Amino acid sequence: MNNDTQIVKGILEGCILKIVEDEEIYGYKAVEKLNTLGFEVNEATVYPILTRLQNKEYLKIDKRPSPYGPIRKYYSLSKSGKESLQEFKATWERIKNIVIKVMESDENDKKK
Amino acid sequence: MTKRNKIVLLTSILLALCVIATVTLNLKNTIRNNSIDIESLVLIGFIILLSVVSVPIVYFLKVRKSKFERILNNEYFQKYEIIRDSIMNSQLSSINKKEIREDVLDILISSQKSGKSAENTIGNPEIFTREILLAFARPGRLPVLSIVDGIIYFICFVLGVSIFIWFEQTSINFFKIGIDISMITFFFIISFILIPATKKLTSTHNYWTFILPVAFGIIFILLFEIIRRFFYDIEIIRQFLDGTIRMIPNIIILVLYIILIPILLFFKSYIRKRLLKKID
After folding, report:
1. Considering CB atoms only, which of A47, A56, A66 is closest to B132?
2. Based on the structure, what is the number of domains in chain A?
3. What's residue B280's pLDDT?
4. Looking at the 3D structure of chain B, how many domains does it have?
């Protein structure tokens, strides 16, 4: 999967919001979670997205020391983050249905 | 010590040696002309001391690893130092810089502990840093702030050199001190071109760009000497090389320079906030 495309970045943003809504999470854990789900992303892709979401004030931050020593940032969803996630879900639902329709019509045309 | 750090240290030693050699030569000429006084000697001693001290300062500020940086293995640290330098040389606020440094360090240490390679974690550190900076502002916006930095550097150079010249000859009225036009040109190039270019270039894989400031200084002086030797008969060249300008002609201008620095720093912080707000 090419993670550099704008569409994937947008989808990743939505998915990260959902992951953070489910549980308070830190950067490295978010990468692991996304990879478990099948995204094949690395820290270089996820951290800038987390930073962007933080700058948009969609994420709340809690800083605690990590087991290895340095300060670790734990992300949770803010009120505006929850609103953004709802917007993403609605947009995703709409786009997903449109894409399915387009793909189905393409397959029907081939069958004819 | 990584190759990058060795070059940083080497450059600081080279720069210190260049300064010491220059003041020693100057001292030799002054003694030959029998015009040496105690003030000049104190000043020369101070410059030499400053040059010597600059090397350990560079070591402690730029080369020495922090407690947590020492956890990173060489592969990880090589990538981390490029990211760290790029972030530290960026126009982000010091709070943002510190936060990003801590985040990146935590991510890299966690990845290293999990057994992942640095290449799989970060890939190209320059692209990674660009992506982080993009999370704060659109490209081309933050460099606007380097113009403000350039003005601040230029004012500091003018004030510093004026005080330096005055210390050499305290009998002269401070407001009658003239600075060479060639030297003002030199400061202008350093403030508005060399410092931003060095900051930009040292954030890449090419470690030898650390030599750039020293190389520029040597080339600039050599070029001036060549011009002096072959084109000194031309009036405009003579004016450029030996003509002086009084950059601080009166108390009002001096106060203006001093006041301008905090005003520009405040303006910079205001502009930064405005730019950072405009993220889509």
Report:
1. A47
2. 1
3. 44
4. 2
